[in-house]
Amino acid sequence: MLTRLACFRAAPFLLLACSSTEPLSIKPPTLVEAGDIWSAKPAADPVAETAPTADQPPPVQPEPEPVAEEPPWAFDQKGDRIGSISFRTWIWSEPMRSRDHLAIGSLRVGTSVKLKSKDPVPGQGCNNKWYAIEPHGFICSDVTTTLKFDSPYWKALAMLRPGKGAYPYQYAFSMGAPMYSRIPTRAEQASAERDMGKTNRFYSLGKWSEGHERLVTTKEEEGFKADGKGIPEFYDGTKGIEGSPWNPVMPKVKVIPAGSGFAYARAFEAEGRLWLLTPDLFLVPADRVWPYKTSDFKGVELDDEHTLPLAWVKPVAGKEKLRKEGERYAAAEGRFDGRKPVYLTGSNQRIGKIVYWETKDGAFIADDDDVSVVLPQKELKFKIKEDERWLQASILGGTMTAFIGLKPIYTTMWSPGLGGVPVKGNNPKKFATTELGIFPIQWKDKVELMSPDPGAPTVFWFADVPWIQYVHPPMAMHVSYWHEDFGYPMSAECLNTSAADGQWLFNFTLPKLPEDWGSVGAGRQNGPSTKIHIIP
């Protein structure tokens, strides 16, 4: 069975995280009342795009001329920009930083944003200069920032920005592995790992870690392989990267704790070993970690033909089809596909505790523990408007649906807290339950570390978790790249989604992430937030 890690405080500006199967994360620095390559433009709204009609075919586009690919940092050198070189750089609504003044967003390390002007503006609470950025907000040019984009260290960071798609990186599970700031010599490796045990070993770390091991693969054919690009150009033998904050004399900086997960952007061979390069420029030996498989699970977009009501079949093995024989239901030929929706006519019959639903293909399906039925909404509540975007998530059903007013747009399965439906008066974190209620989204991180550790994470973490949305901090909706048991309770409190669903929901909800920002908070210049209604 799965055990749980509660949601705890963690790193700078309050890192929080949730996990049973999940870690924890950053508490959004702003709270409101209800109401690709990183430098690419913001992702398209999933419901804003329109396709050509049948009598209006898409125009034929000429073949583009081949263009020489620019290095990632070339983008930063075009125009006046400011970049982040440390953890994250906060964005403020005014050029002022104080205890009662909260950030409205942030930049991710290794990324930059356009300045409104290269001239600084007056402000308070910054030991250096304030700059106005696009589309709004201000950044203090403190030690986390740079205005120069030609250093080897910046170029190295820029090359490891999150990629396009639902999975911005590849991911791995640690059995306890060193993190080096440069390529270590063989002698340095032997010295640094003297007490770390044998390599190429995998074993379950115990019940507390079972949820984190769900997608680990030990198959040789699915193992790590060099990406064929050779040693990154910013490494000069076993020397450190020029401009790196780490002491090159001691290459081993820290250890990824056993049971933790991390991201990597490159895989290459050097000094007799295969190395995985993390987005924050650490090298991890591949023989002390194991790869995570990716999940291809994704919900479905709805239209006039494919709409509610529908039934999600939760087991991978699928569900038997039924036929009606008088007043009873018997097995029919065939099965409904697992982890897929079955569209219903709306006609149903209850016999005892089971409700039998007629499907649009003429069969029947039993609404039992293997099935979750999603019904249309008959009325709007909580002052939700007819054109307003909102989400509804069911704990017992393990389903989530996106609406605009009463119109269903998208539906999927997710994993709630292991504790099931919360009991009034019980602490949801202590009992690992996802809270009930109507909540506005408070803060969104495109990619961020999550950890239950107070302060800088040292005991346990999951790095570079994508598509995080804080609902009622520390409770968040986020991707779980370590499991795909959606539809079933798995978390400590948070709402676990697949990578594809996480990306779709992130792009659907408000506030939208401004171009080149890494995080955004609701309210003020960023506008209102989408509400999520969590029901039993």
Give an overview in words.
- The protein is mainly beta and 536 residues long.
- The chain has 4 helices and 36 strands.
- The strands form 10 sheets. Strands 5-6-35-31-32-33-34 form a 7-stranded mixed β-sheet.
- A hairpin with a 4-residue loop joins strand 24 (354-359) and strand 25.
- It starts with a strand and ends with a strand.
Give the structural class.
mainly beta
Rg estimate, integer Å: 25 Å
The number of strands is 36
Query: What are the low-pLDDT stretches, counting only 5+ consecutive residues below 50?
Result: 1-17, 21-40, 50-54
Q: What spatial order of strands do you see in the largest sheet?
A: 5-6-35-31-32-33-34
List the helices and strands and how they pair.
Blueprint: E1 5-9, E2 15-19, E3 24-26, H1 72-76, E4 81-84, E5 88-91, E6 105-108, E7 112-114, E8 130-132, E9 138-140, E10 145-146, H2 152-158, E11 170-174, E12 177-180, H3 186-192, E13 252-256, E14 261-264, E15 266-270, E16 273-277, E17 283-285, E18 289-291, E19 300-301, E20 310-313, E21 319-325, E22 328-336, E23 341-351, E24 354-359, E25 364-367, E26 371-374, E27 389-394, E28 399-404, E29 407-413, E30 437-440, E31 443-450, E32 462-472, E33 475-479, E34 495-497, H4 499-508, E35 519-521, E36 531-535
